[in-house]
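Teaching assistant here, posting this on the class forum so everyone can see the example we discussed in section. The complex has three components, and the goal was to see what a joint structure prediction looks like when all of them are supplied at once.
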Amino acid sequence: MKTPAFIKRVEWLPIFLLAPVTLIVIAIIIWPILQALSLSFYNTRILNYNEGRFIGLLNYVVLWQDEYFWNSLKVTAIYGLSTMLLTYGLGLTFAMLLYRPLPARGFLRTIFILPWAIPEVVAVMIFVWMLDPQFGVINHFLMQLGFIDAPIAWLSRSNTAMPALVLVTAWRAFPLAMLILLAGLQTIPKEHYEAAMIDGAGPIARFFHVTLPGLRAVNVILILLLILNSFRAVTMIYAMTRGGPARSTETLSILTYNTAFDYQRIGYAAAQGTVLLFILLVLSIIYFSFALRDRKSS
Amino acid sequence: MSTLFKNRLINLVWIAVTLAFAAVVFFPYYWMFASALEGSSIYQFPPNLWPAEPNLDSFWTVITGNQVPVWMKNSFFVASTVSLFCAVISINGAYALSRFKTGATRFFTGIILFTQMLPAALIVVPLFVIFQQLGLYDSLTGVSIALTSFILPVSTWLLKGFFDQIPVEIEQQAMIDGCSRLGAFYRVTLPLALPGLVVVIVLGFIAGWDEFFLARTLTASQDNWVLAVGLTSFQGEYTIEWNEMMAAAVIFTMPALFFFMFVQRYLVAGLAAGGVKD
Amino acid sequence: MAQVKVSDLKKAYGATEVLHNVSLVVEDGQFVALVGPSGCGKSTMLRMIAGLESITGGEIEIGDDVVNDMQPKDRDIAMVFQNYALYPNKTVKNNMAFPLRMNRVPRDQIEKKVAEVAEILGLTEYLGRYPKQLSGGQRQRVAMGRAIVRDPKVFLFDEPLSNLDAKLRVKMRAEIKELHQRLKTTTIFVTHDQVEAMTMADKIVVMRDGNLEQFGDPLELYDSPANKFVASFIGSPAMNFLEGKVEGKKGGLTFVTAAGLTFPVPDKYAAIAGQSVTLGIRPEHIEMEGEGSDGAVPITVSVVEPTGSEAAFVLRSGPDELVAVKRGRSNFAPGSTVWIRPEPDNMHFFGADEQAIVPAA
């Protein structure tokens, strides 16, 4: 034999082709993240960035006793769960409505997707205007319908700011959920419905015995995705309330940002952000394990 | 009662319910346009649900002001540089991901998944300091660079999906017909994937146009603000002119909406084809 | 034109080897079919010859050159893929001109050559069309045209007919064979369809699990398969197999199954008397009679499958099952008893290792 039986060759071409993208992402995303992890062990402020003092786990000890931190965890959980529920509920309702072959279905679907197209900041601006305590159209509608007697200053009260925030978030996020669920509905074979009808199942029985089981895999992934997104969310919360009033909408993301840029405590902010990173890491691992299992089984 | 009639009735009710929901969902859009057209007479309660005297004064005020045009120009700069750089840089990487299964491609796929879960609030803390040290702070170039790298993983992954749809045999045929491996890619596969490249460029543009958080963190002076940052800066001020804000919001939304409609088909098809599983 | 020589060819993906030391020589001008079930390595081998897969071990020569480390473009080959791989954004003419253009053939020669090949394949009036405006058979012809224009040393075909419907496939089969007779270019043709291989090729390579099972003329494979796999793969309907024992009694050898079905065996197989073997007999080599005669064995007709020109019979005797084919019409009804007699010269025996047992001369 002229050639050796087995030559292990390194394929250089893909490495060469992927190098630019990889280097950029490492420089501007991975490297800062690693820096943030290390910053969380220092007492650093923006002004003395280069001469921060190593304090070990002290930031985390302080964090453990920080009531604002625990408050932010509670706010994050409330925000995540309620946006998830509302987004999913709207998404499923509209997906079911659009699943039926209707005239002008394409047009209707476009209408339902429109909120997704709007810049997040604009969505916030519109809702802030609609929720305006003096001239807001939402107060007007609610008074007309008899739900409230007098206008409410939604965004200035700590018990109404969160519902308002959830409303905007869900309004802009439901089209994604709807499209994913609609795609999921389309993967359920028509024959399953036909078989159920022949077996005597009515519309409600068909929903519980055919539709929901058929959406199971999509549901798990979508729900995790929605929770993940709300944990990372910054733009809408920051643009709408900056965490206020009275920290009632201050999620862990926003707390991290405020600690860094309002209070300039970079080391402490890095510790808060690191906790967030770990929560997201755990959620992502669950998410990807479901996503991979789903892909394998299909 | 015939089933045909019953079906028609159900269809009718179904359409009515769907339209009612559609109206509710669409209302914020409508209210943005209505308030912008209403002008300064929006300040009354109860509000006019239909503009009493529709006019374009608010738009005129916004366009001829000395802030919004500058911010628009900045947004356009960020959006176009980000979309072009993302597309150009991701082409080779996406090709590698689509056509090879090696350690390098697995490593990069891992990086893509990892970056997708990272909290932006954490990254910007050190990024803020790093950009200050590099002299990129408070410059549109800095915003473009940061945003480009945030979007690169996504655009690479998207483009890979488009390359996946071009049969590999066509490329191999080109190799047999006299092209080198990369020659076959640039001469044959890339031209066929042009629609995909356009989608990636458009999505990059939308992301750049809409961007708020990075720009808010990495710029300071008003001349370097993008639209999203500029418009939110009015919030909380007592002298806020909501009709002008809504006019600016319309102007801000239009390009994003236009491009979104343009790629909507691909978004829906992508979700239907494999987005659910990815 | 050139011969293709494959020596000790090996292919492995990581630790799994999918091609084990395959050697074969395709003579200049020959039409060789690589046939085998899916996953047998036939396509992998073709793609290694084309240069689309790396070579783990061994050597490939085209003409006088070892091509192991040559780019596909430098091997002077042409390939037709299963899905044709036509450039969808180029017209028929530009599809065919592309390989010439890549090889820097002067423009006027390209025009001439493309027109010439289009004429041969009856594509002249379609030159301005795009692939999606063509029918399956026309696309197939364009793919072949693109291969022919280059006048390469070797044609490689990777299951080119499997996307066509049955009728068109038979037609294209004849067209490709005719084309080969005219051009006399060395051709390697991969297919999973043994009928295609039998009807088109000068020589057939039967492969299984990355091994070359047999290499020979079509009729040689049919008449004397080297092993049970080749015997079962070549021929349609497939060869019958019965497990049993060869017994040497007075009056000659017999083959007896466990359930007692017994056939006489020619004397040339005396060497295997007393051994457990597998009997192979093709459906067309079983004689059937309506009434018993000397040496014939009674058996029950279980199913009749007439096709008009011939009929297939599923025959059962206890657990033993055989298929027999008889030309013309016959009136054996399901449930009736017939007498069968395997043609003695067309009986095959396979040992426990599944290799064919060669009778004494």
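For the discussion questions: The domain at 66-274 of chain B is CATH 1.10.3720.10 (MetI-like fold). The CA atoms of residues 13 and 232 of chain B lie 41 Å apart. Think about how each of these relates to the inputs above.
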